């Protein structure tokens, strides 16, 4: 036939044909779709293949363990039934009264029942201890791999996320270095690929393009974040956020080698540096004068 559901010709209508009599059905080829994430590089393709293999292997291992436990239970039951049959056959050979034989048969049956109960109970206990495989979604598996210091998985997580506007207290700039911070000693990773560091009572969030500081940062935590920004974006960085944050950044930047992309902010920084140098010189002069008078 040409297409599934197509009306048959007149000479074939109202005729019932067995499926075994049909040699084959040829369908028109069409577009087919496979549910899988879009990959952007060979490394990401290898990651997805590895993800599917691990999920499949976990499922197969779980089924194998179930079959193994079931086979052990069946083997124990078969052995108990065989021993009971052998004992009954042996009792038949004894020349004892029927009452004694019935008593022995009852003991054999009781022992068989106890062995069957034991085999089934052991199977149930082992089955409870065997947890089913963890079916991780693609993004959850990437998060797990990223927490195991797999940078390809972290890069794949970040490629899944759309572009977003930079808001809040943060540093940004042109990426100069993609090397990891603090020897990969991060605390957690979100499904959006945001790496979270907890340093000096401050939560620092980094997504490769921006370094965020939520509310509740400390001076030491801010200095740590600024060093991270210089490492990622070079000495020229952009800063935005609340007025208190900008003011604290200006004060902290006096001891760090960097340049602000905003001209007004950089001019203010240079003024504060000159004022600090002048204050230092005046303090040194006063100190020398006092030393001479002594």
Describe the structure.
- The chain is α+β, with helices and mostly antiparallel strands.
- The chain contains seven helices and seven strands, in the order ααααβββββαβαβα.
- The chain has helices at residues 42-93, 98-129, 138-147, 151-159, 219-233, 243-252, 263-293; strands at residues 170-172, 188-189, 195-199, 202-206, 210-212, 236-240, 259-260.
- It has a seven-stranded mixed sheet with strand order 2-3-4-5-1-6-7.
- Helix 6 links the parallel strand 6 and strand 7 (259-260).
- The mean pLDDT is 84.
Highlighted features:
294 residues, alpha+beta, seven-stranded mixed β-sheet, 54% helix, elongated
Strand order of the largest sheet: 2-3-4-5-1-6-7
Termini separation comes to: 114 Å
**Number of DSSP strand runs:** 7
Chain-averaged pLDDT? 84
Portion of residues in beta strands equals 5-15%
Q: How does the overall form come out from the CA principal axes?
A: elongated
Strand and helix map with partners:
Elements: H1 42-93, H2 98-129, H3 138-147, H4 151-159, E1 170-172, E2 188-189, E3 195-199, E4 202-206, E5 210-212, H5 219-233, E6 236-240, H6 243-252, E7 259-260, H7 263-293
Parallel strand pairs: 6-7
Antiparallel strand pairs: 1-5, 1-6, 2-3, 3-4, 4-5
